[in-house]
Design a protein that fits this description.
Layout (H helix, E strand, L loop, with lengths): L15 E3 L2 E8 L4 E8 L13 H15 L6 E6 L3 E3 L4 H4 L5 H16 L8 E5 L2 E3 L1 H7 L3 E5 L5 E2 L13 H9 L1 H13 L7 H7 L4 E3 L4 H14 L14 H16 L5 H11 L5 H16 L2 H14 L20 E4 L3 H14 L3 E4 L3 H20 L5 H10 E4 L10 E4 L5 H12 L7 E4 L6 H5 L8 E6 L8 E6 L5 H13 L3 E6 L6 H18 L3 H11 L5 H8 L1 H14 L8 H8 L6 E3 L5 E3 L1 H6 L9 H21 L6 H12 L8 H8 L19
Parallel strand pairs: 3-4, 4-6, 5-7, 6-8, 7-9, 8-10, 11-12, 11-14, 12-13, 14-15, 15-16, 17-18
Antiparallel strand pairs: 1-2, 2-3, 16-17, 19-20
Length: about 700
């Protein structure tokens, strides 16, 4: 990292150059005086965000020295290069450190340098012009005031997501600025929701920034706003912090955290401790506590596992393995969707939003088509009502999505995906009828979750243009897209599928056409082992506890309730037909489906989760119960066995692809570092061989 201006900044006679930092004097309007402006930049590569290592902190320190020596300065401001404010510490370097003292010193260095911005004797301003994450957000919090561009990509404190805590002031400064409830939304809740980011409106609503300004002339507007604050024509109003309910807020957050991660990872709990202590601790005490917590967590396994997972998401996801030359991809100017149910309607909306091409849905009758179109229109209107979409864009999307009962509307489509009932013969009939309508180069895709793509296409004249295109529900939220290559799928078809997936902003992984592909195959094996244990006599609450020991986002029976017992039974039967020696079919599951029972849990009068009475009546169990620890071992061994078989069958290229699929498609926690490194660390892979070379899952590639 370095602090500097871009080359287009003109060097005037009043500029101060210190190593890689330039501090620019700016005369503010309305007689407000001189502003010392520091611009942060890591190097001349405009695509790389600014990060802070020891050298970067030294550079910023030197820039602040230059400001201190100037004299006649009314205020100091810090901003970033185009599109980036700053994104914090260089975590790839931190993950390599094995000496606790080095981390403690690094924490103190960041605190000292950032803290100087509050000790200059004049007001300081952060002009958050672009993405601000981690230490970048903490740098802004060390300033007196904060402006933010309306076009800034995001603002966050993602450390808990990676097994850390905000360690350069965020854990103390933020709750004392906006109160514990809002602070915990940023520090704990958002990171645990797949690292949710704050948009400018969110940052303003929570009080993290003081004003959001138009992006077109953000720097000039920020300087004018600063002048207004200094001259008193602009009053900055902040909501008072409620200190009386502080501990109660943290207690409530702790209970919510227990429900989500069950103590399986220490970072969010350390963050809660720091926020609780921030009510009474001094700034010095709070910063020292951050140093201690940061050093503890960096020395733990969760950070290194998280860095491995982060590297998969940031690098491997952007360069999927085994994909044909992108130049082979065909242009997609119109999309067809067979079906108008919930999944099909979600797909129609996604394709229209991302590709901005005509999308047409078909179904058996007008009522079904109308229902699908109504869903799409309602979702578009909801985005308008929430301020997420302009009226003009909404009108354009409504015009792009149409419906029909006549499949001849697919005659000029370039990409048609079916989302009909999960039955092989039904899908075969759909493809056979489509082939009579579409052009010979139109891609035919299936959203099947478990059926054979090869079997669907084997009777077609052009099976080479059929591909699996498996989304996860809800379509708009889940980032994974499994692209399944059937036995005769050709390179242009696969290349087009990946090009479309990229336009849809999905993480695409190439998988072999094998039963249930990756995520559903592993989750089905997991769920089958749990249901088998319940059939044998293991109490459902104990089965829940086994998943809690892992820290998985959803317990197995909650997963069963979410996908629906009927769907789970269908997938179990499909997998049993493919692999009868490993995938059984639970008698209890079959019984509850036949009885039409969908609820597994209900709540008692005291709010605790208990088995639903109808489910309990149908539950027939043996006399061989397992403990939670025994079930966890059983599940881990089963997953290791299945993952090894999948690699031996070349379902994916490498273990890293299994990990990426489980992270993006099943919500596998970052702090576990993916499935295969967890299986290696726990010893579950000993019987089938380690998946990764020692150290691979500890540091980024």
């Amino acid at each position: 990292m370095s602090a500097t201006t871009r080359e287009q900044d003109q060097q005037g006679s009043h500029d101060e150059v210190v190593t890689h930092a330039r501090v620019r004097r700016v005369e503010m309007p309305a007689g407000a005086g001189t502003l010392a402006l520091i611009t942060l930049d890591n190097d001349r590569d405009h695509t790389r965000p600014t990060t802070f290592g020891p050298g970067g902190l030294a550079s910023l320190d030197a820039a602040i020295d230059a400001v201190s020596a100037m004299g006649d300065i009314a205020a100091v401001a810090v901003t970033g290069k185009p599109f980036f404010f700053a994104v914090g510490a260089d975590l790839s370097a931190i993950g390599l450190v094995r000496d606790r003292a080095v981390i403690e010193e690094f924490g103190r260095l960041g605190h000292r340098v950032f803290g100087r911005l509050s000790e200059l004797g004049v007001p300081t301003f952060a002009f958050v012009n672009g993405a601000a994450m981690g230490g970048g957000t903490e740098l802004a919090l060390n300033c007196t005031y904060r402006t933010m561009s309306s076009a800034a990509a995001a603002m966050s404190l993602p450390e808990v997501f990676l097994g850390l805590v905000p360690g350069w002031g965020g854990s103390w400064l933020l709750p004392n600025l906006i109160g514990p409830a809002n602070a915990l939304e940023v520090i704990v809740a958002n990171p645990l929701q797949q690292n949710r980011q704050l948009r400018p409106a969110d940052a303003l609503r929570l009080g993290v920034v003081d004003v959001v300004l138009d992006s077109a002339d953000f720097l000039e507007e920020s300087i004018r706003w600063t002048a207004g604050v200094l001259t008193g024509t602009i009053a900055v109003e902040r909501a008072p912090v409620d200190r009386d309910s502080w501990d109660g807020v943290v207690d409530f957050a702790t209970a919510m955290l227990d429900d989500r991660v069950h103590g399986a990872t220490p970072a969010p709990y350390r963050a809660l401790e720091l926020v609780r202590a921030a009510r009474t601790s001094t700034r010095t005490e709070g910063f020292a506590a951050e140093d201690e917590a940061l050093a503890d967590l960096v020395m733990g396994e969760d950070l290194r596992a998280s860095l491995y997972a982060f590297d998969l998401v940031q690098r491997r996801a952007k360069k999927p393995v085994g994909v044909p030359d992108p130049a082979l991809a065909r242009k997609v100017a119109k999309v067809g969707i067979v079906g108008a149910g919930l999944m099909a309607s979600q797909l129609a909306l996604l394709f229209a939003k991302r590709l901005l091409v005509p999308v047409v849905m078909t179904d058996l009758d007008d009522a079904r088509v109308t229902k699908g179109l109504d869903y799409v229109r309602a979702q578009i209107q909801a985005d308008v009502d929430k301020g997420r979409m302009s009226t003009d864009r909404a009108n354009r999307l409504r015009a792009l999505v149409t419906g029909s009962t006549d499949t001849s509307v697919f005659a000029d489509a370039d990409f048609v995906i079916e989302a009909v009932f999960e039955e092989l013969e039904v899908k075969r009939q759909v493809f056979a009828s489509l082939e009579q309508v579409v052009t010979s180069e139109c891609i035919l895709a299936t959203n099947t979750s478990s059926l054979s793509v090869t079997a669907m296409s084997e009777h077609l004249a052009h099976p080479e243009r059929v591909v699996g295109f498996h989304f996860f529900n809800p379509v708009a939220v889940m980032p994974l897209l499994e692209i399944a290559r059937a036995e005769r799928t050709d390179d242009p078809t696969v290349a087009t599928a990946f090009a479309v997936g990229k336009q849809l902003k999905k993480t695409c992984v190439l998988v072999k056409d094998a039963p249930a592909f990756v995520v559903n195959r592993l989750l089905t094996r997991y769920l089958n082992e749990v249901l088998a244990a319940v059939d044998e006599g293991t109490p459902p609450q104990v089965a829940d506890r086994a998943s809690q020991l892992l820290g998985l986002p959803m317990a197995p029976l909650d997963l069963l309730a979410l996908v629906g017992p009927g769907v789970a039974l269908h997938v179990s039967e499909t997998m049993h037909a493919a692999f009868p020696d490993r995938f059984g079919v639970s008698d209890n599951l079959r019984r509850i489906v036949e009885a039409g029972v969908t609820a597994i849990w209900t709540k008692a009068d005291d709010g605790t989760k208990v088995i639903d009475p109808r489910f309990a009546e149908l539950l027939v169990q043996g006399d061989s119960p397992s403990t939670a620890e025994q079930l966890l071992q059983r599940v881990s061994l089963a997953l290791a066995d299945e993952a090894r078989r999948m690699l031996d069958e070349s379902v994916v290229a490498e273990p890293q692809d299994i990990d990426l699929c489980m992270i993006m498609g099943a919500g596998w926690p970052f702090w576990l570092g993916g499935l295969t490194p967890y299986l290696d660390r726990s010893g579950a892979s000993d019987a089938v061989g380690r998946f990764l070379a020692p150290g691979v899952a500890s540091v980024p590639a």
